[in-house]
Design goal:
- By secondary structure, the protein is an alpha/beta fold.
- The chain is built from 13 helices and nine strands.
- It has a five-stranded parallel β-sheet.
- Helix 10 packs parallel to helix 13.
- The protein is elongated.
- The structure holds adenosine-3'-5'-diphosphate.
- Adenosine-3'-5'-diphosphate binds next to helix 4, helix 11 and strand 9.
């Protein structure tokens, strides 16, 4: 009887130990399976680092979280201006291993806002912790709704604006219109209209190529949402003359190490612009495409003089707002 009871106790112990072992085994299987998925399911630093030119380090140097690239909303935006040199700036910034930038213009805050932030985020490249995600859509600068919408996404986002003499910018814009719509009226015709009340001919400031150049007016809208310290204005003419100098200031503003320097650029005589010795993901020199650096039509001196008079007070106001003289007078 006592022997039978003893046997019963041993059987219970055995059953308990067996169940414990099964629980441990399940837990082990579950955890190792998760670890395996993590290692193969997402982009990891090694592959990304190689494609972005970041230094190659081994996986033992960092935690899993640091190694996993994820999609997130941008921390910096190039908001304008059209024809200011925004593509050049973005392509130059892409050289930096700590920058991940969307290739095409998302137009989220001006055109596709109703698609929601998840849609917007899906357009961003995956980035590692510490990398800055950014995009450029020059239309944001002049879009009435964009400042409030950008602010609603993040009040900390850094804003970059590339500006250029508004008259040259307008001619550049017009050259693009002509390339898409041959036979369009002359620049002079589009710049002026009959004044109201028989007041003679006046500058048509409603015409988009001229209206975009009213930088102070557009900037004032942004300044109601963001402090100037959160914005950086790139000097478009200097970006052509001295790309490395201008990129040093942009990198400082973004809190990036100064990695993009003189050694990344060379001046291409045929193109008439600085080009990249080794763009991101390539070992071949590269200039921007044919739509950047187009030939401009000849514009009469008289038209230029009248446009200078028109822009003078707007430019001065812009210099005042930014605290910098761009020398367009
Ligand atoms: P043009 O075509 O009138 O010369 P965006 O990219 O914002 O549309 O600006 C286009 C302008 O960028 C060009 O206008 C050109 O002047 C300027 N730009 C600045 N740096 C450049 C570069 N390295 N290569 C080509 N264009 C550049």
């Amino acid at each position: 009887m006592a022997k039978g009871r003893c046997f019963q106790l041993d059987a219970q112990k055995l059953l308990f130990l067996f169940s414990l072992a099964m629980v441990c085994l399940s837990l082990y299987t579950l955890l190792s399976d998760r670890g395996h998925k993590n290692a193969s399911g997402d982009i990891h630093a090694n592959s990304l680092a190689t494609s972005s030119g970041a230094p190659d380090v081994t996986s033992t140097d960092a935690t899993d979280q640091e190694w996993t690239a994820t999609r997130r909303l941008p921390q910096a935006l190039i908001i304008g201006v059209k024809k200011g040199g925004t593509r050049a700036l973005l392509e130059f910034l892409r050289l930096h291993p700590d920058v991940r930038a969307a290739g095409s213009e998302p137009h989220f805050f001006d055109r596709h806002y109703d698609r929601g932030l998840d849609w917007y985020m899906s357009l961003m490249p995956k980035a590692l912790e510490g990398q800055i995600v950014m995009e450029k859509t020059p239309r944001y600068f002049v879009s009435v709704d964009s400042p409030a919408r950008v602010h609603a996404m993040s009040h900390k986002v850094k804003l970059i604006i590339v500006v250029r003499d508004p008259i040259t910018r307008a001619i550049s814009d017009y050259a693009q219109i002509v390339s898409k719509t041959p036979g369009v009226a002359s620049f002079k015709t589009l710049c002026f209209r009959n004044g109201s009340g028989g007041g003679g001919v006046e500058v048509n400031s409603q015409w988009s190529p001229l209206w975009i150049g009213l930088y102070a007016r557009h900037l004032e809208r942004w300044l109601t949402y963001f402090p100037l310290a959160q914005m950086h204005v790139v000097h478009g003419e200097r970006l052509v003359r001295d790309p490395a100098g201008e990129m040093a200031r942009v990198q400082d503003f973004l809190g990036l190490e100064r990695i993009i320097t003189d050694k990344h650029f060379y001046f291409n005589q045929t193109k008439g612009f600085p080009c990249l010795k080794k763009p991101e993901g390539s070992s071949q020199p590269h200039c921007l495409g044919l739509t950047k650096g187009r030939a401009h039509p000849q514009v009469q001196e008289e038209v230029i003089r009248r446009l200078k008079d028109f822009y003078r007070p707007h430019n001065l106001r812009f210099y005042e707002l930014v605290g910098q003289d761009f020398g367009w007078q």
